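Predict structure. Chain length: 540.
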Amino acid sequence: MEKRLWLAKRLLKPDGVLIVTIDEHEVHHLGMLLEKVFKEYLRYTITAVINPKGTYKLNFGRVDEQVFFVVPDVGRDVIVPRPRNAKDGNADQLGLGLLRKMVGQGLITRSMLDDGLFDPSELDLIEASFEDDTLSDDDELEMDNSDDTPPEYEDWFLRRRGQESSYRHQRPNQFFAIYIDPVRKMVEGIGPLLGKDEPYQKISKSNYLSVYPIDNDGHERVWRYSRETMQRYIDAGEIVVGSFNKKAKSWTLNHRKLKKEFLRNKTVWWEKRHDAGVHGTNVVNNLLGKRGLFPFPKSVYAVQDALATVVRNRPNALILDFFAGSGTTFHATCLLNAADDGKRRSVLVTNNEVEEKLVKRLISQGIYRGEPEFEAQGIFSLVTRPRCEAVVTGKRPDGKPVPGRHIDGRPLARGFEENIEFFRVDYLDPDDVDLGTQFQAIFPSLWLAAGGLGERPKSPAEAEMLVPPEGCFAILLQEEKFRAFSKAIHDRNDITHVWIVTDSEDAFAEMRAALPGRLITSMLYRDYLRNFRINTRRNL
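Prediction complete.
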């Protein structure tokens, strides 16, 4: 595993992210490996609930798995905030009732607030769960929203409720009266700033009364803003009267703000769409038309949400999965592209492993590895390839339309617009490659290196050059035809990659210098052999 992680690190872009899911048995071992290999990266552990019913094992019913996000420390957010209405791996906003129960059971304590264990946007609500008896279990997590809160707005508590710098003696400039009309539920103005130890006096008249930032225990807290800033928000109509607090015998005041368009991703994911049984096993069964071909496939939406945290704003991202399994990553990539017309690509790598018990049975029947009957029972032949084909075509291996729908209503039988290619990776003799006798074998890797966009053109049996009419690469096979080749690609702004077949370093340098500088120009077969050199040692 360590070797694979070193290779993965080499393949990552400077702002690329490694995502690894792991169960409870290997999470600590993997964590130590990641700390060793990616020591200069930021490492986060997400708890994802994938089996709400729980496993049937001794002592505990496991419902979750762990997801490592290994993120480059580039001085800015790499993980993309989620749209407010998106289901992208964050638990739906928990009801205040559940939060208050957690407070009551001691699962959330005031010391946790002081230790900075919660997002600042949540502090108001958590403090409210300690002290505000007027909020119902149906109130939203972050706000003191009520029936009259416009749907595009949210009401934030105006009184500071945290433990740090929220008391009058700490911020005396933020302790003053706010005058309200309780009948019309309107804010009328603000009172004068009081001296540091000057006693406050509540005023109650027929048409207005004064509200101070006093909590349920009678402690003198402060407002969120200074007097000048508060007046500006009052003039803008953003300070509103909320509910009546029976315990404090006063009114709650709120700052009404436009809803945030994006929210930060949380570290506990509890989504119905992540259920591996409903959206993993059942989906694979529908796509393949058979049951039990692959144990415990992941929910395609859990993978989609994990990828979205990184590539939501990268419509041309390249996603690599070197433990392809049933092909869920490819399916998730299709869903991401369908949502925003993206052109994301995914490369999946798998062996064709045959289940151990089946191996013994096949061998007892005289069927051995490498034979067609044996290889037909491997994970790639039996699951990965037919699943990916069914995702794109909308047809099962038996030719029938795939039953069922995605959770957004898209029929599985509709398929996707993606193109897909399958390649078998073999070891080539480097001498044969260097002599140019393996061009047919390496040609697909050139297409992939150029982005794998569009349909893969047929590799020429014998040709002077290859300049596909649609595509982003070109190959010069006979260097004496360079003048015609250069002319053919001169006005092709869609071409990004060029390969030149030559044995001469000097000739390659001259030809590369004559081509537009925007092109990524490589020498065959020298660069190919360098890129795919194996069995080299690395100082670990």
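Summary: The two ends are 13 Å apart (CA to CA).
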